[in-house]
Each structure stands twice: as structure tokens, then as C-alpha cells.
Amino acid sequence: MRQIGWLLVAAVMSGAEVPRTWTEAAVKAAEVPLAKLSYSPVHISEQAYYATPVRTIYKTYPVYHPKREPAGYMEWLKQQEPQAAFDASALKTEADWVRAGELVFNSPVSFGPVFFGAAEVRNPAFYEETGMPVAKDGTIPFARWVVRKKGEVELGSMGCNTCHTRVMADGTVVPGAQGNNPADRQGAWMLRRAAKFAPPGELLKRLREFGKQFEVPGLVDDPNRRAAEMSFDELLAAGEAIPAGVTARAHTSMLLPPQIPDIIGVQERHFLDHTGLVRHRSVGDLMRYTTMVQDMIGRARYGDGPASTRVGMRYSDEQLYALGIYIYSLRPPENPNKFAGIALKGKAVFEKERCGRCHTAPLYTNNKLIPVEGFAAVVGGEVSSLKVGTDPRYALQSRKGTGYYKVPSLKGLWYRGPLEHHGSVATLEEWFDPKRVSAEHVPGGYQGPDGKARGVKGHAFGLKLSEGDRAALIAFLRTL
Fold first, then answer.
1. Could you tell me where in the chain the CATH 1.10.760.10 domains are found?
2. Residue 451 in contact with residue 241, Cβ under 8 Å?
3. Residue 19: phi, psi to the nearest 5?
4. pLDDT at residue 78, as a whole number
5. For 480, which of 55, 120, 335, 392 is 20 to 30 Å away at the CA?
6. Exposure string (b/e) for 378-395, b if CB count within 10 Å is 16 or more?
7. Is the pTM of this model over 0.90?
């Protein structure tokens, strides 16, 4: 096990310099090539990256459910002065960096309606009809109010917290966990209402334009091109089909959206993204990955495609470093499932079934990549020889398609869900149900835009267990 977290703390406490996020050599070494090598991304230069303006991290304020908002709260916010909240020169200790990283984690990068806007979070019906979770203190941890100009209060979102925050059943907020805000369904909710006032065809045009970002250059029969022919209702239905814990983020797919990853314990993982897109060897790699997916996502060129002329904003190296330290500091909620009774038997089942070949204790992952069907990989080193047989489309038909899936860690399964790289499976009971792979199975998680029955194929390990052994194994897995 690589002690990334401890090494990082030692580096901070010894006054080590902040790593340089973007050098061409570092970016090239970090990324795993795509399955179609000639269409691997060509990123912008180091000079162009550092010419990109750095965003200001403003002081932000909690968003409350409209029935829980303190009296006079919005009027008070309008009296607040804009305040820059991130000052790298003031960061001296590990605790300073962690607190600063938390600011970055919760800092919005968008100030207009995306999945939701200011009108939505102040509308009680929005919560009832979309299922937006509310913390026990009445706050909404997926967004923040921001004052960038005195007298103007803006709703900010799309920071790390928008996707990587989970509200537990008791209202506890778990930063870094697989998020459970149904963002894509919220976006569809908002668009359906906007359609009542927009010119005919205008929203359809915008949705189809939005869908183009998912198209994969050079891919014959790219399923993502279906969006260009879908009707307005079909496109909204595709969004409404995406459950909480799954999202069609940039460079993924509206039709094959990925599960939102749990980033608690990420310092123990050697690859980032379901397809192992970026190697994770140090905090510098986490910094590079963050800016790739948050700020540079639209500026890479793929194959013969044109480079984007968009400039946008970026995090500073210091902001990314603080964010990395904060993410490494995150810990899971206290596990209510105790390693006793039936769970003890489950551990024996785990060992008998040789689950540890891939899910090796104590990390419960061997940190390797597994080639998907249809991709010829050189086995050895970081590439496993095992075949799992899961749906290969996301690993071959997206701009994150390396031809691999990484072996996920089983730690924290008790608070995560839905499961599988598309979030197709709602529970561990469903995962180990032999009927899961049949064509008649209706997934308990993401069902697809048509909602039809479909088998969740692959990973047949454990499907032939007796009912008792299956229950014991599940009980053990929930203790991890």
C-alpha cells in the first residue's frame, strides 16, 4: 500500500513547494491512452494552460430549503461585501491547507442554472417532485449562495460538492461520498417547465447542441449520435431515467452515463475514473485530473477534430493542492455494520471464492486494470489477465474509453449506491442475484432511457452461491 496521504502530510509540514499542475511531460505520463490510440486527447500547451485566468474563490453561504431558511436571511446576504476567501500566503500548517481545500471543494464554478437555479432551490415543489435531499440542519450541500457584487446574491453550483456529496437517511452530510442529488432529473424538470415559455424548437436545438459533447471522434456507429435525432421529450426522458448517484458528466454519455465515484480513500487508488483514465501516483496527478475534468475538459483535441477556442477559467496550483489535501483527509461515516455473527462467515466465503484476487485486502482492490471484451491489451504489470465480461461500451464508446475498467475498491459499499460502473444495480442483493444477468431482469438502478428489461451482464463471481453463503458474503461486504 502506498502511503500517499502520510507522504503528503509530511511534505506539507516540511514546507515542500506546491507541485506544478500542468507540464506537457506530466500530463502525458499521467494519462492512459484511449483504446483507439490515434484519438487519444491532445491537450493544450503548458503556456496556454497558465495563460488561462485563475478563478477567485469567494466566501460562500449555505443554501437552505425554503421552509428552513432563517428569517431575513436573503436580506442579510444582500448586505454582505464580496470577500475573496482563498489566500495561499496564509497557509502554514496541514490544518490550514485542509480548511482551504474544503473552501475549494464547496466553491462553485457556475453561477447560472445548470441542474437547478435560484428559483428552483427556493421552490418547495422542486424538492418534492425531484427528490433533492436536504441535510438535517435544513441546508442543501450541493450548492452555495455567493456574493460577487454587493447587493447581488447568486446561486453557485457545479463545484466538487455538487456531485461528490451524499446526504444520508438521517440527514448527515458526507463530503466526498458518491453523491445522491438527482441532478439529471432536476435538469429535465427545469427544462420541461422552461418549454412552456421558450420559442418552439429553441430548447430542442440547445439540447442537441449539448449532446454533441458526448460524440466520440472516429467511432463508427457512435451511439451518442442518437441524440441528434431524438425528440425533445425523448431527450428529457433520457435525463429523467438517470437516478441519483449516476450522472451524464462531460465526455461520458447521455445514453450510457457513469456512476458517480466515491472519492473517500482515493489516496489508496492507483487509477482515477472508471476506465482508469489517469494514473494516480501523487497529489500532482490528482491535481491534474481535477483540472482536466473541471476546467480543461473542452480544450483538448481528439483525432482530426478541431481544438476548442474556449478559454474559461482554471484553479491555481495552490487551490488544486489544497483541494487534494482536503480530499486525502476525508474519512467515511461510522459504519453501523459490525464484523460479527454472519459477517464472520461471510469473510470465509470471500476467501473461499478467491474474491481477493481482485479485491485484495486491506484496500479491497488490487489497483489493476481489466481489459474489456473487444479490446486487445498486453497483460501484465498494472493490467490483469482476468476476464470479467461487464458491458464494454463505456470503455470503448466514450471519450474516456481506454479499453479498461479499473478494479474498484469494496470499501464503503454499505453507504454507496447505486452500484456498477453505470449504477445499474441498486443493492448488493441485486448484484448477487443470479437473475441479474438474464434478459428479463429490470435493473434496480439505472435502467436506460427506454426503461426496458435488460440483463446487467458480467462479473458472474458469487452468482452460484447458496442462499446462506450469499447472505453471509453480503453481510461481510457491508462491514468494509
1. 334-367+407-480
2. yes
3. -60, 150
4. 97
5. 392
6. eeeeeebeeebebbbbbb
7. yes
